[in-house]
Amino acid sequence: MLDPFAGSGTVLLEGEACWVDTVGVESHPFVARVAKAKLSWHASHREFLNYALAILSRAKRMTGITDGYPKLIEKCFASDSLRKLDTLKRAWEEENDGLPFSELTWLALASILRECSTAGTAPWQYVLPRKTKARTVDPYEAFEAKVILMSSDMSMRRLRSLSKRARLLQEDARSCPSLPDAWADLVITSPPYANNYDYADATRLEMSFFGEVRNWGDLQDAVRRHLIRACTQHVAELNGKTNKMLSDPLLEPIREEMAKVCTLLEAEREHHGGKKPYHTMIAAYFGDMARVWVELRRVTARGALVCFVVGDSAPYGIYVPVDRWIGELALAAGFKSFSFEKLRSRNVKWKNRKHRVPLHEGCLWVEG
Ligand SMILES: C[S@@+](CC[C@H](N)C(=O)[O-])C[C@H]1O[C@@H](n2cnc3c(N)ncnc32)[C@H](O)[C@@H]1O
């Protein structure tokens, strides 16, 4: 089984539970590290707990330093919390050997940052430094609770006698040279949607804390260039190249329809303050997805079954039939058929709606 957009590894862990050889591909460096750490679940949960609690004890004996962190981090934490988080980070760094216990401890520390922050955050959400929340958690308490939770989760997974057959490749789904031809029989994945969600910005808090990026601008080079272009921030410099992108031979089966939608989007943006280049984003997104299908054709066996969990979108209220276009691109790459199984409706509640186009989400089944 293959998950070309493995994220934090849900499909990989389920593959292990089913004793299926499973490979995940994830190109976001931070997210790939999360998935790899989760695959270390089979390390001894008791030894992990002792290791992590020893790091906590060492941290408590250290003096935290708050200088030198990026501005975002200064804005998101009270100084006492940041001092404690800094001691945890430095205590972890002293022992860091890249092996499972140290990676799991890194994961525990990464995963408490939002709970300890005064900024408006939730898992996978962009950080809102100007929005503050009343309740934050003490970093030492949060860290202790997290490693206890992880250790108990690891012990329960062991009871389910999972195999150790999943691995994660930090590669790009548009080209994954480590995967042999015709390797996968089954592909299960949830790709980025064409809905302007920025996976790079979504991890800015964590990457800033660990010193992997200093500012918003660093995200382009450190993260976005590895990702499917699914947000307007990613295509800012391509504005004006939309027609050139539409002439990509791989887009042939959907070019005419796409060109019409892109023209509407380009005209519509003039009526909106943000003037977002959705027309460029849509052209880039489907160009990237076309490449993904060519690569998926290479790495899947004849007769393979593919499931893409995907949703359609309507930027500025202009409908983009994402699942059908992705299906057409799959056929162009050499798959035999596609069908869409709707799982739920989206954008049908009246509150907070930017437009009233009903949307859906479901499984795009591709065979061949
Ligand atoms: C909807 S999420 C997948 C979530 C996943 N099912 C999970 O359980 O965490 C899509 C993922 O695709 C990743 N991604 C985006 N572009 C990629 C690319 N070119 N190659 C591989 N992964 C990519 C994103 O970083 C994100 O983690």
Question: Your description of this structure?
Answer:
With 368 residues, this protein is of the alpha/beta class. The protein folds into 2 domains: 2-27 and 166-367, Rossmann fold, CATH 3.40.50; 32-159, no CATH class. The protein has helices at residues 10-17, 29-38, 45-60, 71-76, 79-95, 100-116, 139-159, 204-209, 218-222, 242-246, 255-269, 278-299, 322-332, and strands at 2-3, 22-25, 119-120, 128-132, 166-169, 184-189, 300-311, 337-346, 359-367. The strands form 3 sheets. A 4-stranded mixed sheet has the order 6-7-9-8. α6 (100-116) packs across α7. The mean pLDDT is 94. S-adenosylmethionine (SAM) binds at residues 5, 7-8, 10-11, 25-28, 31, 172-174, 190-192, 199, 227-228. The site of S-adenosylmethionine has 19 residues, from α1.
Give the gist of this structure.
By secondary structure, the chain is an alpha/beta fold.
What descriptive keywords fit this protein?
368 residues; alpha/beta; Rossmann fold; four-stranded mixed β-sheet; three-stranded parallel β-sheet; 43% helix; globular; binds S-adenosylmethionine
Counting H and I runs of at least 4 residues, what is the number of helices? 13
Q: So, CATH architecture of the largest domain?
A: 3-Layer(aba) Sandwich
Spell the H/E element sequence: EHEHHHHHEEHEEHHHHHEHEE
User: How far apart lie the N and C ends?
Assistant: 15 Å
Rg over CA atoms, rounded to whole Å, is 22 Å
**Weakly predicted, low-confidence segments:** none
The oligomeric state of the chains shown is single chain
Domain count, please report it.
2
Mean pLDDT: 94
Main sheet: strands, sense, barrel: 4 strands, mixed
Strands in their spatial order, largest beta sheet: 6-7-9-8
Strand content: 5-15%
State the shape: globular
CATH topology of the largest domain: Rossmann fold
Number of beta-strand segments: 9
